[in-house]
Every structure is written in structure tokens, then in C-alpha cells.
Amino acid sequence: STARVCRISGNTAQNAGGGLMQTGAFLTGSVLFDNRAGQSGGGLECSAGTIALCTIAFNSSSNTGGGLVCNAGSSVENSLIHFNTSAVCPNVACDSSVAFSHVGSTPLLPGTGNLTNAPNFADAGARVLRLGRESAGVDAGVNSNLLNTDMDAQPRLADGNRDGVATVDMGAYESRIYHYVRSNAVSAVYPYLEAGTAATNIQTAVNDILTEDDIIVVNDGIYPEYVYLTKPITVLSAHGPEKTVIEGSHARRGAYLTHGDAVLEGFTIQNGYADAGAGVLISGGGTVRRCILKSN
Prior knowledge:
Elements: E1 2-4, E2 7-9, E3 12-13, E4 20-23, E5 26-28, E6 31-33, E7 36-37, E8 44-47, E9 50-52, E10 55-57, E11 60-61, E12 68-70, E13 75-77, E14 80-82, E15 92-94, E16 97-99, E17 102-103, E18 121-123, E19 128-131, E20 178-181, H1 202-208, E21 215-218, E22 221-223, E23 227-229, E24 234-237, E25 244-247, E26 255-257, E27 263-265, E28 268-270, E29 280-282, E30 287-289, E31 292-294
Parallel strand pairs: 1-5, 2-6, 3-7, 4-8, 5-9, 6-10, 7-11, 8-12, 9-13, 10-14, 12-15, 13-16, 14-17, 20-21, 21-24, 22-25, 23-26, 24-27, 25-28, 26-29, 27-30, 28-31
Antiparallel strand pairs: 18-19
């Protein structure tokens, strides 16, 4: 069995496997955060299974393996496991193979290509677990067990460090140029490449970004604005439509797309008002996916 491209968070297990317990299964391309187990495997516990291209962070357990317990016969590859907590082995308690993975453990776990330094998440506090621009996990994996796309539905293989060789990144996200939006950002500074300099509203970032095919990541919150996408740009929420809302306030349309390569993904679009297309109007092309449209 296979679990592919999943976001697993906020779960609690009385004993083991806070987010997931797997036996003989393949978990790939997924993010596990803020899960808890009473004994072991705060993020997950794995027996005779495979974990690949996963980000496992900010999970906890009382005893061992706050991030991951990896029992005999399992393997971990191209994954990023950091900032988990437990009394013993806070990130990984492992009797199996770990290779080409970024693990916050000292000493460094034995295995080919492993790293231990900080991953440089884009916005760890807000659980935006994409790799920052200077992360050592960029282009540091091995090109095996790959998916076609990452958690953002973007191509999985890219030359993130610009060395002329496309090598997969560690974790669930492939590095690319991200521009950030946070409603409570302290200081908005173009081109909005860090959480601390994020734009404070979506449309400002859309208007200012001039490079085609860039991605704007919008943090959790309610955004009372009208979003219009007239160029090939992707605007996606950090944590899905349950956490990120485009609010029309019964006074304006929610979103308007006019370009064939424009993408709006992962929002609740509500209370829009217009003569036609009150929630979303698509004219000439564009893609809206994983969105909830309601009360328009």
C-alpha cells in the first residue's frame, strides 16, 4: 500500500504513531507536523516500510522517536526530519537504513549523504516547511523513488542550486523561487522572499512579481480582497482552504483569472458579489483547484 502526497498534522495517539503507523507500506512526498504520541513515533512509526521525499517536523512523543521510529526492515531516503521532541532520540529512533536525508541529530546518523545542520525552513513558526534559499537540503538528495510533482504540484526535479545538474531536494518540497504573503508581516519588502519581509496582501504580491512561473505562498488568515491573475503565476495557500480565506464581504468578486497558465490553489473563497462569477470568474483561461467556494 502507498500513501502519497499527504499533509498529516494535529493528530494524537495514546501509544505509538501520532500521525501515522505503517507496516510494509510506502510513504512518499508527504508532510507530517504537529502530531503527538504518548510513547513513540510522534510523527510516525514504520515497520518494514519505505519513507521517501517526506518532511517530518515539530512532532513529539513522551518516550522515543519524536519524529520517527523506524523499525527493522524499513528505509528512509530523501527526507527531512527536524525540530521533533522526545526524551530519547528526539528526531529519529532507527534500526534501519537512512540515506540522503537531512536529520537534526548529533552525532550525524550513519548512512550515505546524510546531513545534520539546520534546514532553514521558510517560516518554521507558521509551519511553512518549504526550504529556504540557503538550505543545505537543496539539490542534496539522490534521484531515486521520485514523484513527478511535489506537495505544491510543481515539477519534482529542478536545479535548485544552479550548478547545471538537476538533483532532487530533501523533503516534500522542491526548491524554487517563492514569494510570501502574511497578513501580519512586520515589514513588507519586495520581492517578499522571507517570512519577515512578506507582502501583507495577495494582490500586492501578484502585481509586483514580474518573473513568469513564480509561486506566491499565502500564509493562514482571512484576506479581504479581490484577487485577479492576468499572468502566468501560481498563488497557493500554505495550509489549504480550511486555513486561508479570500473574503468578498458581499461587496466584490473573490477572484478573476484571465491567463491560461494562472493558478489559484487551496483557498476558501466566500461572500463574493458580482453580476456574474461572484466567487470566481475565469475568462480566457486559468486553473482553480483545491478551493472551496461558498456563500457567493
